[in-house]
Every structure is written in C-alpha cells, then in structure tokens.
C-alpha cells in the first residue's frame, strides 16, 4: 500500500508541475524504457551511455560514479529517474523539490517491475503494462517443453573473450533469461557478474558461449588456451551478440530473445556451424 501511495503521489506531483522541466534519466536502461514508451521528446538529460533517437537533444550528465549533480539542478527537470542506491548522491536534487523515482534493474523481475513503474510516472501505465505482457508472452512461447537443456556461458567483455572479462551468473538479468528459454547457466554464483579463475572457467564446460557486447568483438580467443579446451569452442558454438543497447537491461530484450532462441535451436539441430558468429541487435 505504501508503494502504491508513493507512486500515486509522485504521479500527482508530476501532473501538477506539468512536466515543464522534462525528464532526466540516469540509467541507460530506463532511458530505453522512456524511448520505448514514446516519450523520448520529454528527455532533457541522460548519462554518457544513454541512447536516444536521432534529432533528440539532451544534456549528457556523466555516469553513475561521476554524476554532475549541479548540471541536473541547472536543467530544472520535472522528474529524475535514477538507480536505487544513489539516494544520498541525489539528496540535493530532492532538496530542490525535484521528484526522483528510484528503480532497480538487476534481475528480470526488477526490470519488468521498473518498466511498469516508469509507465506509471510518465502517464503511460497502460502502454507499459501492454509491453510487459508482450515480453512475458515472448518468454512463455520460448520455453522449451522437453529435451536436454544446453549449458550456456554468457560473457561480457570489451575486447572479445580476452582479459579482462566478466562472466554472467544465474543471479542477474541476462542469466535470468536462460532458464526461461530452455537453457541453463554455466555459471552458478551469488555474484551477478563474477570473475572466474582458469580452473573455474574450465569447470563451466559450456555447450554454447555467447559474448554480449556493445560493439562487434573478435572470437579468436576460442583458439587459445584456456578457451580452446572448452567444448563450445571446439564445436564452433561460440557467438558474439552485440548492439549499442546490449548492456542496457530493458526493451532491448525484445531483440535479444529471438537471437538466443535461434542459437539454441541451431544447437539442438546440430547446426551451429551454419549460424553467423556475429549477430547484431536491430
């Protein structure tokens, strides 16, 4: 009840202010949600990693760790959308009477919940509800009804599979997607994005490797130790899925899910060699 009342009060305040100052989004994922809900023209400030359609003029405000709070205040926004956990940093913004909505995007459920909350505070609740329902329907249709579940090693790393690299555990947004589509995560850890030792990497023994990146990255490390010992590399089942919004948990999943399904289907049909090794999000 408290959460509902807080959201209702925030929506009332935004309506009362008329959103004259526009929206500041301090999360690239949430920026994508605002755009997906048809409100890109209301954005006035985003982080350096945010992506907006061509023709939309916004102020870049730094990142999570070097946010320019003074620049946020100068924009005089009608609403700030921020990451849960940075409340102390944004206290000057709230003290100035600017509404701030804090959101979580660490897991699939948190992303879906935040999507609906963004819709509520933007006055697009029905559209957000529809988009979330569409995504849930996609996940349901992607579920594998029977048969073995391949083990997938998800990697996020600028510069390809080479060090430094970060692995994706089941305790993360990307890791949450795998069981939904009939696969299992090769990395089981309480840490969302753990580092693995050489021995830890070899122990994952993945059937498939998928490198997630913002830019097209090389997969040549599959021919080098220790990756060359992994059966996914030996069986030509390593892929790079990339795009400007790849590391933004949110609407990009509408493009990512069909690609993951395509890779899993090829694996089940023993035809991964026929797939392109680099697949770009639309």
Q: Can you offer a commentary on this structure?
A:
This protein has 282 residues and is α/β, with parallel strands linked by helices. The protein starts with a helix and ends with a strand. Mean pLDDT is 89; it is low at 1-19. The chain is built from ten helices and eleven strands. It folds into two domains: 2-138, 3-Layer(aba) Sandwich (Rossmann fold); 147-280, Nitrogenase molybdenum iron protein domain (Rossmann fold), CATH 3.40.50.1980. The strands form two sheets. Strands 6, 7, 8, 9, 10 and 11 form a six-stranded mixed beta sheet that branches. Helices cover 37% and strands 15% of the residues. α5 (108-121) packs antiparallel against α6 (125-142).
Count up the helices.
Answer: 10
CATH architecture verdict of the largest domain:
3-Layer(aba) Sandwich
* Strand/helix succession: HEHEEHEHEHHEEHEHEHEHE
The best one-word shape is globular
Radius of gyration: 20 Å
Instruction: Report the portion of residues in β strands.
Output: 15-25%
What's the CATH C level of the largest domain? Alpha Beta
Helix content: 25-40%
Distance between the termini: 39 Å
Briefly summarize what is shown.
With 282 residues, this protein is α/β, with parallel strands linked by helices. The chain has ten helices and eleven strands. It folds into two domains: 2-138, Nitrogenase molybdenum iron protein domain (Rossmann fold, 3-Layer(aba) Sandwich), CATH 3.40.50.1980; 147-280, 3-Layer(aba) Sandwich (Rossmann fold), CATH 3.40.50.
Q: What's the arrangement of secondary structure elements?
A:
Blueprint: H1 2-17, E1 23-25, H2 28-36, E2 43-46, E3 59-60, H3 69-75, E4 79-83, H4 91-95, E5 100-103, H5 108-121, H6 125-142, E6 151-156, E7 166-168, H7 173-180, E8 184-185, H8 198-204, E9 208-213, H9 231-234, E10 238-242, H10 253-268, E11 278-280
Parallel strand pairs: 1-2, 1-4, 2-3, 4-5, 6-8, 6-9, 9-10, 10-11
Antiparallel strand pairs: 6-7
Helix pairs in contact: 5-6, 5-7, 6-10
